[in-house]
Design brief:
By secondary structure, the chain is an alpha/beta fold. About 30% of the residues lie in helices and about 30% in strands. The protein has seven helices and ten strands. Strands 5-8-7-6-9 form a five-stranded mixed beta barrel. A hairpin with a 4-residue loop joins strand 9 and strand 10. Helix 2 runs parallel beside helix 5. The protein is globular. The protein starts with 19 loop residues before the first strand and ends with a helix. Homohexamer; trimer of homodimers. Pfam families: PNP_UDP_1. This is Purine nucleoside phosphorylase DeoD-type. It catalyses: uridine + phosphate = alpha-D-ribose 1-phosphate + uracil; a purine D-ribonucleoside + phosphate = a purine nucleobase + alpha-D-ribose 1-phosphate; a purine 2'-deoxy-D-ribonucleoside + phosphate = a purine nucleobase + 2-deoxy-alpha-D-ribose 1-phosphate. Its EC number is 2.4.2.1.
């Protein structure tokens, strides 16, 4: 009798998890994607209400699961998906705060690199600095998909921050000056976990607020209206 794989955080109860998984932070966004885009859907996770689903998109099997907020949460879920459930392609789809003047609400950013103020990398005991980057195969394909759909995207460096409310009031100015496109909270951990395991990872973001223009979307809009990045990510299923 084959072993039924499960962890303390993911219990599929025998349901399939595809080799390509989309990882929105919000589990309700995962449900929205499953309800809106997937066919023949089964739910593989409800532990801690971190919903996970597997279905078919354009004839290809793909899963979607919430990852929670912050690098510790992303670190847990992505590690388990990779090492326990054999996932090969992990695509974060999330929101970010824009830093640059040429970015507007609902613009799409593809994170080529993920700078960070986190100490997550210390676990690897590397003899120097490490630059977390996306898998080029996924990045190249995502850009091609976006171009084919006519969706303009910005490709560049993002910041994965451990601090949402930063006591350093000059921090954003400093990152902005280094060309960082936007701030989110998970991609660097995903990129490091994937690199260490030899699998593929990518982060696709929608601008939910602009830090310098004082513009922002609502929580409902973040859950259900960021569909362009979802479509790009779904087309990356192998």
């Amino acid at each position: 009798m084959s072993e039924v794989k499960q962890t303390a955080h993911i219990n599929p109860k025998g349901e399939e998890i595809a080799e390509t998984v989309l990882l929105p932070g919000d589990p309700l966004r995962a449900k929205f994607i499953a309800d809106t885009f997937l066919e023949d859907v089964t739910q593989f996770n409800t532990v801690r209400n971190m919903f996970g689903y597997t279905g078919t998109y354009k004839g290809k099997r793909i899963s979607v699961m919430g990852s929670g907020m912050g690098m510790p949460s992303m670190g847990i879920y992505s590690w388990e998906l990779i090492h326990v459930f054999g996932v090969k392609n992990l695509i974060r789809i999330g929101s970010c705060g824009a830093l640059q003047d040429d970015l507007n609400l609902y613009d799409i950013i593809i994170g080529m690199g993920a700078s960070s103020n986190s100490n997550y990398v210390s676990q690897y005991h590397l003899p120097g600095h490490y630059a977390p980057i996306a898998s080029y195969s996924l990045l190249e394909k995502a850009k091609q998909v976006a171009d084919a759909k006519g969706y303009p995207v910005h490709v560049g460096n993002i910041l994965s921050s451990d601090t949402f409310y930063n006591a350093d009031k000059e921090a954003n100015d400093k990152w902005r000056g280094m060309g960082i496109l936007g701030i989110e909270m998970e991609a660097a951990a995903l990129y490091m976990n994937a690199a260490e395991a030899g699998v593929n990872a990518l982060c696709i973001l929608t601008v939910s607020d602009h830090i310098y223009k004082q513009e922002e979307t609502t929580s409902d809009e973040r859950e259900t209206s960021f569909t362009k990045m979802m479509e790009i990510a779904l087309d990356l299923a192998e």
